[in-house]
Amino acid sequence: MSANRAEPECSDDLAEDVTVLGWVPEPAELSDVELLLDGAFPPLGGFLDAAEAESVRTRRRLSDGTPWPAPITLPVPAEVATADEIELRDAEGAPVALLRNIAPWSDGTTCHVSGPLRPAAAPGGALRRMRPPAAEVRAGLPAGPVLGLVADEPLHHRELAQVRELAAELDAHVLLLPRMTGPRPEILVQALLAARPHLPAGTTIVPVPLARRADPDGDAALAAQVAAAYGATHLITERQVDGCPIPVVEPPEMLRDSEDRWTRAGIGPGSGGLSTAELRARLDDGAPLPSWFTTPEIAEQQRRLHPPLNRRGFTVLFTGLSGAGKSTLARALRDELSQHDHRAVTLLDGDVVRRTLCEGLGFSAADRSRNVRRIGFVASEVTRHGGAAICAPIAPYEDDRDAVRRMVAECGGFVLVYVATPLGECERRDRKGLYRKARAGALPEFTGVSAPYEAPADADLVLDTSGLSQDEAVGRVVALLRERGWVGSWTWE
C-alpha cells in the first residue's frame, strides 16, 4: 500500500468543510470495487465493517445469517480513513467510485474503511463495455437452466467438449465469465472469444474482474457467488465449493478417439490430452500446439498469453552493500545481453535512479523503500513489454525486494542476485569515502554501518566479488538465465 498516494480534492457538490481524499486501491481491491458497483456481490452494497468482516471470517456468514464466503474489505492508511469522502481511482488516476458515510475500523494492525459505494464516472474502455451490470446480464438470459463457467485459462478442444456435453445434458444456456486477472486480461478475453464458434449457440460471454484470493476455498466460493449474481443456475467446477449458492456440476472425463474427436469416457476407447505441465512445457519452449488439442485461433491467443521463455521479459535485481560491485556487474551484464540477446536492455543503477526517477528522496527507511519500489515498478513495465531490466540498488530490506519480485513475476522472469562481498572489502574499495564518513558519524543512515542491511535468504544466486573476476561473476548470471530458459546460448568470451 505504500506506493499509493492520498490526495486532497475539492468537490463542488459538497460543503466547503468536507474533506475529500483521492486514493488508488491495490489491484485486487479495485476489482472488488468494480464488482460491487456492478452488483456482482449481492447483497453487499459496499465494503464490510468490522462486525460483518469478523462474522464472515469466523462463520462464513453475514451477521444476518446470509452465507458469504470471503470478507470484502478496503484497507487504507490512517490519514485516508479520517476523510469525509474517498474518491477511489484506478492505476491511471481516473475516478472509479465514491465512498461516503465512511466508518473507519481496525483489525489490530491495519486500518479499514466501510461504507456504501456509488460510481464516480461513466464506465470506459473496450473491456468495460463488454461488462454490463449483473442485473442487466441476468435479465438478458433465456428462461431455464444457465450453466456458468468462470474461466482463467483459454478453453481447448477437451474443455469445449465438456461444456457442450453438460449444456446438452441440462438443456442449458451457457454463461462464460472470463476472469480478468494477471498482466494480460485482454488476451484471455480474446482467447475465450475465439472459442465462441465451438461453444453452444448463443453462449453469453461477460468478463469479470474477479481477483484471486489466497484461500482456495474462499476463492472458489466467491467465484460461485459472482456466477450466480450474473444469472448462472449451475456452476461447472472440479472443486467442491462449501456453501455454494447454486448446484455444482463436475466436468465429465473426455477422451480423444482415433479421429481426434473428444467423447465422454466410457463411450469407446480413446486417449487423453495434454496435461497442464505438458502444455506449459510446450508453451515455454515455443513448440506448436497440436490440432487435436486446440484450434489455430485459440492457439494464437494462448501463445500471446504465454510466450516462449526466450521471448518473455525478465528482470535481474542485484542487491548488496555499497561497494559490493553491483553497478559494475550490472553494466557488464547489460553489455553482454545487448551484444547477444534480442531484447532491449534497460539498466536501472541505484545512483542514476536517485538523480532522476527518485530525485528528492532521502535515506530514511521509508525513502529507501520508495526508491526500491519505484525501481521495481519501472522494471516490471520493462518486463511486461518483453525487455530485460537490470537493477542495481542496495535494496536493503526484504519486504521491498519481495514486493519487486511479486510485481515482476506477474509478467515475466525474476532473478535476485545477492552480491555478498564482505563489508571489509567494500570499505577497502570505497573511492567516495562514504564508509569513512559513516564511521565518523557524518552519515547517520548509511547501510551496513549506521543502517541495517537484511541479507536475502531467498537469493537465486550469491556472488562474492572479492573472490571472483568480473567475467566469472557475469558468466554465472548468464548461466542461470540460460538454465531457466530466459536467454539462449552464445559463445562466452
From TrEMBL:
Residues 28-101 form the ATP-sulfurylase PUA-like domain. The gene is cysC. It is an enzyme of class 2 (transferase). Its EC number is 2.7.1.25. This is Adenylyl-sulfate kinase. Keywords: ATP-binding, Kinase, Nucleotide-binding, Nucleotidyltransferase, Phosphoprotein, Transferase. One of its GO terms (cellular component) is cytoplasm. Catalyzes the synthesis of activated sulfate. GO terms for biological process: hydrogen sulfide biosynthetic process; sulfate assimilation via adenylyl sulfate reduction; sulfate assimilation, phosphoadenylyl sulfate reduction by phosphoadenylyl-sulfate reductase (thioredoxin). It comes from Saccharopolyspora gloriosae.
